[in-house]
Write a structure and sequence with these properties.
Elements (H helix, E strand, L loop, with lengths): L8 E2 L2 E2 L5 H8 L2 E4 L11 H11 L4 H14 L15 H13 L5 E5 L7 H17 L3 E5 L3 H9 E5 L5 E5 L11 E5 L2 E6 L1 H5 L4 H7 L2
Helix pairs in contact: 2-3, 2-4, 3-4
Length: 213
């Protein structure tokens, strides 16, 4: 879609007037996770995650390695041969995340990945986002209406124990995460853009009401 006004920049590159061929080169750097996962119901978990690689003609032995790596990351390698109808809501979302990460995109767009999920499953999705950000250097734009998701992602970081085990740590008062920003929109207009500390200190009446929900 072309904008009526303004410009579109990806990593500082102005793509506003690009033709379809040029846009396709940009799209290779971006992964998209659709709301509710949006899996292809006629394809297995393996083929859903492999879809992008298959489109690009990647050799099957490499595709299989990549699919297993991604499913292992979202803790679903045992579901590799299952069909979407056999998956729970949380499993479908995690398969959608794995599919979005195929091809190792630099940027990941996630539309309401926690919508309709129970709190523990929603938290596991947020933990995946933190690990992608801190351990895999993937930038993500995550859309959510859940302030609890914002609080968690903006105040938790991932690291490694000496034995290599991944651990999630709360920032508390020891440090301030600078790799996560929050943007809040109202009626299509940006009403806030900054850190979580600034958001929670805001005097804006609309923001205060939202934070108390």
């Amino acid at each position: 879609m072309k904008p009526d006004e303004g410009r579109i920049l990806i990593d500082g590159e102005d793509i506003t007037d690009y033709d379809e061929e040029a846009l396709n080169r940009v799209r290779l750097r971006i992964g998209v996770h659709f709301q509710d996962g949006a899996l292809f119901d006629s394809l297995s978990v393996y083929d859903n995650v492999a879809f992008r690689c298959h489109e690009q003609g990647v050799p099957e032995e490499i595709v299989e390695q990549e699919v297993r790596r991604l499913l292992r990351f979202v803790d679903l390698e045992n579901a590799i041969d299952m069909m979407p109808a056999q998956l729970s809501g949380g499993m479908r979302v995690r398969v959608g995340v794995a599919r979005a990460l195929a091809g190792k995109p630099q940027t990941l767009l996630m539309d309401e990945p926690t919508g309709g999920l129970d709190p523990p499953t929603a938290r596991s999705l947020c933990e995946l986002g933190v690990k992608l950000r801190d351990l895999h250097d993937v930038s993500a734009i995550l859309v959510t209406h859940g302030i609890e998701n914002v609080r968690f992602i903006a105040s938790t970081y991932a690291g490694y124990k000496p034995d290599g085990e991944v651990v999630l740590i709360e920032e508390k008062d020891r440090l301030c995460l600078i790799n996560t920003k929050i943007m809040m929109l109202r009626n299509g207009r940006i009403i806030f853009n900054g850190s979580d500390e600034e958001l929670f200190r805001s005097d804006d009446s609309y923001i205060r009401e939202f934070l108390l929900l």
